[in-house]
Structure formats: structure tokens, C-alpha cells
Amino acid sequence: MMTVTERLLQTLEDLREEDFNKFKWYLWHKEALEGFQEIQKSRLEKATRLDTVDLMVQTHCINIVNVAKLVLVKINQNNLLENFSDISEPSELSVS
Fold first, then answer.
1. Which domains can be identified in the chain, with CATH numbers?
2. Is the separation of the CB atoms in 80 and 14 below 8 Å?
3. DSSP codes, 9-72
């Protein structure tokens, strides 16, 4: 069974470069995150997909799935939401 971080990485790898850059843009804009904490722009500017996953874990921890879903909707990548569709139990939110 894949962990949440593995699913997030897989999801980010499915994004084209332009969409990945949009994903990161939303992560550093507080008003776009609708109440979730933003990640410093300087930390995301040159972040790879792996770095972005690590930064999201550090910043969002148990909210990582909600943040990922929110941003995927904002960048019109609703098809990738299914990567997280079966996560419903708190025990499945393990990020390790």
C-alpha cells in the first residue's frame, strides 16, 4: 500500500512542468490556500517534485491531502483527485 507521500509524489510526477509550477504557485499564496498555511516562496522557487513533497509534509502534515486536493482543483487537474479517493481513515494519513 502506498503512503500519502508516495501518492503525492506520484501525483506531482503526473503534472506537466507548467502545471507543476502552478501547483507550487498556489502553495505560496496564502489567500489561495483558503485557511491553510502557505510555504515560503523562496523555498518553493527551485524545489523539485521531491522537495515539494517534503515541504508539504513539513508544513501541512495531516492536512496534506486536503491541501493537495484544493490545489489540484485550482489548477484544473480534477482527474488526479482520484489518487487520494480511497483515503478516509485517519490511520491512512500516515506520511511516513
1. 4-76 (1.10.533.10)
2. yes
3. HHHHHTS-HHHHHHHHHHHT-GGGGTTSPP--HHHHTT--HHHHHHHHHHHHGGGHHHHHHHHH
> Distance between alpha carbon 61 and the CA centroid of its chain, in Å?
11
Measured at the CA of 9, the angle between CA 13 and CA 25, to 5 degrees, comes to 75
pTM of the prediction?
0.87
Closest CA to 66 of 41, 86, 48, 84: 84
Chunked in runs of 10, what are the mean pLDDT values of the chain (96 residues)? 91 98 96 93 97 96 93 96 75 44
